[in-house]
Amino acid sequence: MWNFRLLISIFGVCVLSVMTNAQSKVPPKVLCTESMMRVEIDLAGENAGKRFYLDHLQHYPDENCKPKIEGAMAVFELSLDDIFQCGVTRMVNKISGKRVYYHKIIEESADPAAPKEIIIVKCTGQAKTLNKRNVLPAGFQEPEDLEITNSFVKDAPEPILGVGVRQAGRLVTGELNVSPGTPLQMEIFLDNASAPVYGILATYMQVTDTKSQEETIIFNGCSVDPYL
Fold this sequence. Notes:
Elements: E1 3-5, E2 13-20, E3 29-32, E4 36-42, E5 51-54, E6 68-70, E7 73-79, E8 89-92, E9 98-108, E10 117-126, E11 161-167, E12 170-172, E13 185-190, E14 204-210, E15 213-219, E16 222-223
Antiparallel strand pairs: 1-14, 2-10, 3-4, 4-7, 5-9, 6-7, 8-9, 9-10, 11-12, 11-13, 14-15, 15-16
């Protein structure tokens, strides 16, 4: 049984947000520092009996990627210094210096017939940058009357990366049990809102089922080993 960890980055943290597919529910509490994202999920009430784990890392053996139980809360503490430890995605806006870190948490009900829910937790902050003013040439004079005929400003959406595995053309979610020799297709994709705006350049990808066994399948943008 393989669990897949995506080791890709697209390129003061205190702003935070949470997105869920059930807007009426009380979202988890997210606390952000420069080095850590802490997610607190209340296990009482409607969350009683539910399980929470990081997307694609349900049985990954690293204890840092598993929730810790503190009283009536499940707590995730995700490193922002080592984003590869638990597959945190980091995005950097090269123009503004804005950094966004996010991960997906799976909410699984005790009822096997109930669908799983996805919670996206995110930390956003500005990098400390020094702006340099361009030096104007000698004798430059700005016109006193400047006519602006048209102006158009629009912000592109923040991209959200996804990774998945297809078996026999079907996208597999959750755990995946395969026999040796079964072909699998890895996919990296963007959300629907940002897909028409951005492109993806995958420089490195690694899959692992234990800390001692791992396979690199993309290195410097090239396929190294397409077979697991």
